[in-house]
Design brief:
There is one protein chain. The protein has 451 residues and is α/β, with parallel strands linked by helices. The protein folds into 3 domains: 159 residues, P-loop containing nucleotide triphosphate hydrolases (Rossmann fold), CATH 3.40.50; 180 residues, 3-Layer(aba) Sandwich (Rossmann fold); 79 residues, GMP Synthetase, Chain A, domain 3 (2-Layer Sandwich). Helix content is 32%, strand content 20%. Strands 2-3-1-4-5-6 form a 6-stranded mixed sheet, with helices on both faces. A 6-stranded mixed sheet has the order 8-9-7-10-11-12, sandwiched between helices. A 3-stranded mixed sheet has the order 13-14-15, with helices on one face. Strand 10, helix 7 and strand 11 form a beta-alpha-beta unit. The longest helix has 16 residues. The radius of gyration is 26 Å and the shape is elongated.
């Protein structure tokens, strides 16, 4: 059965995301002094002593969203409250009780669920003197904390353990680090959130025609047919010069972070539009971090309807021309809206994730080095030709190989790309990027390179 979950709820700008990040020990949710930053519910597994549960960050109750998404944010809050085992009601100790706090309290009482009242921004002992006034909300003792200054967080964790429902015998917490993490990235309004909702079978994130709806990177554990994985929904990217505000800037940073921590990246393209600068920027980030990637052609059904003769293979040539560094990546035509080929995409991502963990024997590596050198030698530099003596695998995810040669500076980028393609082709990493490290060696091993 699902394990326990705690939703952090409250009016806007009381520090819900700051407390969320403090508890999980990482800047998962975006923090900013501007009210209404959080829109989707952000979930992350949290372990305190021997209990693991989902901690859920939510948008501010009563927020007026400038992009007219207030009803969508409210729906996400409702879903979080309905899912939660315990509600962590956050107020601002400096403001005292506000009318909106009273509205939130009335709403939470109606749920009949356990509620833990927490007064945030108690940065000093003097501010804790305001605690008795919050008893009027009707939830008993108030825990004073400062998420920003890390004050009394241990007390809060103790209270959380006390209020959590007893663990079930068959409760199996999911360790996020052990699950396949798939990041969905792309330009704004390309269909990433629709894809997440389709895979999860629920309205897990807000979907809107309004560009820039998603601001945060949202981790969602999805289970189907006994298989679990983490889907990371990300903010849609656009050119740096077109960013509207600091929230969009932070959303872009979170997208880059999502790429770094993902096992596999799904680069979503709109099959009805041309590949643009933002798509190329994302492709460069994926390539920079050596991430296995599947290029998902969303709205493929509409593209086929418009051009019945189009094929994925034909589109591959176009992608290779526009995104040359990702020419070896798998392509998949799908429709997030209709659910066509979406689960097959996840299965393909799982295969790539496993392939990136594969180790090969040293003999295979050296045979590949010798064969690549036989096919093509590096260009002469200052009258000298580099010689590659031997290699060994030193890592996985990405598959990483250390090659010893006469002088790494004599091997240019073109030859490095050639070596990478040979390693993928000959060692079974056809659709997975490999990382090559070149190191000078003073010892020549006869027979390891063609004379």
């Amino acid at each position: 059965m699902p394990y326990a979950s705690i939703a952090i709820v409250g009016r806007p700008n009381v520090g819900k995301s700051t407390l969320f990040n403090r508890l999980v020990g990482s800047r998962i949710a975006i923090e900013a002094p501007t009210a209404g930053v959080t829109r989707d519910r952000v979930l992350y597994p949290l372990t305190i002593e021997d209990r693991t549960f989902d901690l859920i960050d939510t948008g501010g109750i009563g927020i007026v969203d400038k992009q007219n998404l207030s009803s969508d944010v409210e729906n996400q809050i409702t879903l979080a409250i309905n899912e939660a085992s315990v509600l962590l009601f956050l107020v601002d100790c400096r403001d005292g009780i506000t009318p909106l706090d009273e509205h939130v309290a009335e709403r939470l009482r109606k749920t009949g669920k356990p509620v833990l009242l927490v007064a945030n921004k108690a940065d000093t002992f003097r501010l804790e003197e305001n605690m008795p006034s919050f008893h009027a909300l009707g939830f008993g003792e108030v825990i004073a904390v400062s998420a920003k200054e890390n004050r009394n967080i241990d007390d809060l964790e103790d209270a959380i353990l006390e209020i959590l429902p007893p663990a079930e015998e068959d409760e199996e917490p999911v360790a996020l680090r052990e699950l396949l993490k798939v990041a969905f990235v792309g330009r704004r309004n390309v269909g990433k959130s629709s894809m997440i909702n389709c895979l999860s079978g629920a309205e897990r994130v807000i979907v809107s025609d309004t560009p820039g709806t998603t601001r945060d990177s949202v981790d969602i554990i999805i289970e189907r047919d006994g298989q679990k994985f983490v889907a990371i929904d990300t903010a849609g990217m656009r050119k740096h010069g077109q960013m509207d505000d600091v929230m969009e800037f932070y959303g872009h940073l979170r997208t880059e972070r999502a790429i770094r921590r993902a096992d596999v990246v799904i680069l979503m393209l709109d099959a009805m539009e041309e590949i643009g600068k933002v798509d190329k920027q994302l492709g460069a980030l994926i390539l920079e971090h050596h991430k296995p990637c599947i290029i998902a052609l969303n709205k493929w059904d509409l593209a086929v309807e418009k051009n019945p003769g189009i094929t994925v293979d034909a589109f591959q040539k176009y992608v290779a021309d526009k995104l040359p560094g990702l020419h070896f990546c798998k392509l998949a035509g799908l429709s997030a809206k209709e659910g066509t080929n979406t689960w097959q995409l996840v299965q393909a991502a799982r295969q790539l994730g496993e392939l990136a963990k594969m180790e090969v024997k040293t003999a295979q590596i050296n045979n590949t080095v010798a064969e690549a050198y036989r096919k093509r030698r590096p260009r002469p530099q200052s009258g000298k030709i580099a010689k590659i003596y031997y290699g060994t695998q030193v890592g996985v995810q990405p598959p990483t190989f250390l090659l010893f040669c006469s002088n790494p500076q004599l091997i240019d980028d073109n030859y490095r790309r050639f070596l990478s393609s040979q390693f993928r082709e000959m060692l079974g990493y056809a659709e997975v990027p490999v990382r090559l490290i070149l190191r000078a060696s003073g010892e020549k091993e006869i027979g390891r390179y063609a004379e």
